[in-house]
Amino acid sequence: MSSSDPCGHDHGEDEAARARRVRQHIASVRSVFLITLVLNAVVAISKAGYSYFAGSIALGADSLHSILDASSNVLALIGLHWSATPANSKHPYGLRKIEILVALGIGVLIVIGLFEFAQAAVKTLVGGAAVAPRIGWAGFALVLATMVVNFFVTRYEHRKAHELHSHLLHADAQHTQSDLFASAAVVVSFVAVRAGFGWADSVCALILVALVGRVAWLVFRQNVPVLLDAAVLDPAAVVELGQGVPGIRSIHSIRSRGIHSAVELDLHMEVAAEMSVAAAHDLAVQIERDLKVRFPQVTDVVIHVEPLIESESTSPSSSHAHAPGPHSRPHSDS
């Protein structure tokens, strides 16, 4: 039995409220990306312009990284547009996982940046630079200013990612943070170049490859499990909530999946065998509401109601009926 209520109970207001919440969430995330897009574009243009003037490979690679930051913002905005598409017959759970696909797209962009960094650095080290980079104090001032901007963007996105429970913002914040570290490496290369070590420009570019590679690994590690339907909620917390509801004998076979801001949950709930279908249905509706209050990120709950035969509850062969884990053996339908 599902806790959905096609008759008798009006869930229209609840569904409308959840729909408004989703729209507000998307609008909030979109606002963050619009702000960071403008800032990242300013940083990218500034770095690219000075790298062309100074002939610095390291700063050129760093400007590419900043361009990827801005590109990922654009990609995220496109993804948010699709994630706002309501559920339909072909996509009954909606398109919220597009956020994860976009986050992985950002990871792919980072990997592309890695190859660009490595190619430029190795080519310069092997072939030798025809002209050493011309680094003036204006270059130091520009890079330090962009670091301040990147620091602000990173902190801002991290804070909003926690507030909005957005994988997409987390991924983009990590991407921007890698640009902050990359810019610090560029400053070191500037110091070395002014001291007469022209090769430092390419060596620092190779260091950037390692820094950015770590960020790419984090993006994939955090988002790939979502596409593989990794568990999101702790089953023990769901069992604990169910134990406080009169009439529920046990909850088991708990499964959850989805993104952290949109969790799909299904479970099996045992009630007394003599309980009427209507009473069991009301109990399922109650537990669904309690779950969504306790776990606001839950957007969909499917509850399978089972009768508990008292004589079986004490027999050794049926001890699994109260096992509160996701691996409990399911019972037959009532």
In short:
The protein contains nine helices and three strands; from the N terminus they run H-H-H-H-H-H-H-E-E-H-E-H. The protein has helices at 12-54, 57-83, 98-127, 137-164, 167-194, 200-227, 235-243, 277-294, 310-313; strands at residues 250-259, 262-272, 298-308.
List keywords for this structure.
334 residues; mainly alpha; three-stranded mixed β-sheet; 10% strand; disordered N terminus; disordered C terminus
Please tell me about this protein's structure:
Helices cover 64% and strands 10% of the residues. It contains nine helices and three strands; from the N terminus they run αααααααββαβα. The protein has helices spanning 12-54, 57-83, 98-127, 137-164, 167-194, 200-227, 235-243, 277-294, 310-313, and strands spanning 250-259, 262-272, 298-308. Residues 1-13 and 313-334 have low confidence and may be disordered. The relative contact order is 0.12. With 334 residues, it is mainly alpha-helical. A three-stranded mixed β-sheet has the order 1-2-3.
Architecture blueprint of SSEs:
Blueprint: H1 12-54, H2 57-83, H3 98-127, H4 137-164, H5 167-194, H6 200-227, H7 235-243, E1 250-259, E2 262-272, H8 277-294, E3 298-308, H9 310-313
Parallel strand pairs: 2-3
Antiparallel strand pairs: 1-2
Helix pairs in contact: 1-2, 1-4, 2-3, 2-5, 2-6, 3-5, 3-6, 4-5, 5-6
